[in-house]
Amino acid sequence: MRTFLDFEKPVAEIEAKIEELAALAEASGADAISQGVELSRLKSKAESQLAAIYAKLDPWQKTQVARHPDRPRFRDYVAALVTDFIELSGDRNYGEDAAILGGTGKFMGRPVIVIGHEKGRTTQERLKHNFGMARPEGYRKAVRLMDLAERFSLPVVSFVDTAGAYPGIGAEERGQGEAIARSTERCLTLGVPMVAVIAGEGGSGGAIAIAAGNKVLMLEHSIYSVISPEGAASILYKKKDGDEPRPDRVKDTAIALKITAQDLLELKVIDSIVKEPVGGAHSEPAAAIAAVGAAVAEALDDLSELDAAGVRRQRRERFLAIGRFEAESATASA
Q: 12 is in which domain, residue-wise?
C-alpha cells in the first residue's frame, strides 16, 4: 500500500474512492461496464492530479519526497543494476559499519567498485544500518574500497542517501571529522573515473565524503545540502533550547538553502538531473532505477577515454569551477 505525503492528500482521497468503488462493485455484482468507466475516470483524475502536484513542488516538499520510506535504497540499485556483486566489509582498522556498503561487481556489464549509503526499509533494517548515518569506520571502509578501485583500474559508482554522518560521542572519539576529510580527499585524488548519484538525501559532509566525483548526478526530487532545513531553521530561528522552529520557518529555510536538483544544476554543483517518474521514484521504483542506470552508464562512457592524469584534471577543474561565475561577475561589476 502506498504511503502518501501530506501534500498528496487530494490524490489519497481519490485513491480511497477508487478502492471503495472497486470493493463495492465486487460485493454487489454491479454492472461491470459502468463501474469500469467510473474507475477509469477516477484513475485518470488521480494521475492528472498527481502530475499537477509534482510539477510545482517547493523545496520543502521535495525534501519530504527525498525522504520517502519507499524510495529506492542502495541495495535496490545494486540488485537491479549490478551483477556478480561481492560485498566487502570492514575498514581494516576498527570494525564494520553498516551505514555505508560497498563491493565489486559489474554495473550493467562494466566491472566497477560500487559504494553507497544504506538506510534500510523496515524498522529492524533501519536500526541495523543506523538510518544511513555512517560512523568513521564507514568512511574508512569507503577509502579502502577506493584504494582497491585505483589498484585494479576500476571506475567507482557511489549512491548518496544520508541525513549526515552519525554525530555520536563514540564516532567523534574515533575521528569522525578526519575520516570524512580523508574520504573526500580520496575521491578527489582517484586516478579512475568516479560517478556519484544523489539518490535521496545528500546531507552535509557525510554525503560529500563519497560524492566528490568526476560526474555528480542527482535525481529530480532529491536534495543536497550542507545542513538539513530543520537544522538550519533551528540555528537561525529557535528562541531557546528545546523549542522547535515553526513549520513556515523550516519551509523558508529550505527555499533559501538552494537544496534542489534544479537549483544545484544552475549553480554547477551537480552535472545533470535524472528525471523521476510522475509521483517520485517511490511511485515506480523500477523505472527510476532504470533511468539512473542509463544516466550512470552514459557518464562512465564520457569518462572512459581519460587516462589517470586526465581523470584527476577533469575532476579538479570541475570542482574549481563551482562559484567561479559569481566571482567573475562580482569582479566585473566592481
A: 6-56
